Amino acid sequence: LHPIVGIEAYLAEGSARARERKSYHLLLLAENETGYRNLLRLSSRAMLEGYYYRPRIDLDMLAEHHEGIVATSACLGGPVAYNFLHGRPELARDYAGKLAEIFGRDRFFIDVQDHGIREQIETNRELIPLARSLDLPLVATNDVHYCNQADASAQELLVCVQTNTTLSDPKRLKSESDQLYLKSPEEMERVFGHLPEALSNTIRIAE
């Protein structure tokens, strides 16, 4: 196995020290030992300086500890996709530009996902032209919560156990998709065959 050490960080909308609950997701991957140590520093600062409901970092912290880290714009909860989804395209573009400045244009990737969720399909229509207009690389990813597609029902049951609810509860925490499994290269190509560079960039990051 070739491990890729990383964290899904919570990025505060402003300063991590502010008492503001709003935060975005951001995927940070260690490229080398320097990056690994910077992930440790960011994680520590998130807990010690930025904890408010959850451990948070901010853009200033990223600027200070970016070396050796590869970042992606993450899922629908990321700063780029989230703002596109909520009708704030200028803010989405602003975040993409700032993160590209921090990590470098070859170390910050615009993340596209497709689990059959309508919102992802909608935001991908915005993310792809954004990446091309800013000359940023795309990467195709898939959230993995279980190994096989057939495990989706077991995952739902596990979430019920964790949240002390039942499958019959209409208000229970429920996934919108059964696509959160470890897809094969062939399955990913069927979804993102029109974006070959996004598929090849997954290998580029791993290497």
What strand line-up does the widest sheet have? Answer: 3-1-2-4-5-6
Number of helices: 8
Order of helices and strands: EEHEHEHHEHEHHH
**Could you give the count of β-strands?**
6
Q: So what's the overall shape?
A: globular
**Cα radius of gyration in angstroms:** 17 Å
Distance between the termini: 12 Å
Our estimate of the beta-strand percent is 5-15%
Unreliable spans are none
**Helical residues, percent:** 40-55%
Major sheet summary line: 6 strands, mixed
Average pLDDT taken over every residue: 96
Structural class: alpha/beta
Could you please describe the fold and organization of this structure?
The chain is α/β, with parallel strands linked by helices and 207 residues long. 44% of the residues lie in helices and 14% in strands. It has helices at residues 33-48, 59-64, 79-85, 89-103, 118-133, 152-163, 185-192, 196-206, and strands at residues 6-12, 23-30, 56-57, 69-72, 108-112, 138-140. Strand 5 (108-112), helix 5 (118-133) and strand 6 (138-140) form a beta-alpha-beta unit. Helix 3 packs antiparallel against helix 4 (89-103) and helix 3 packs across helix 5. The longest helix is centred in the first third of the chain and has 16 residues, at 33-48. The mean pLDDT is 96.
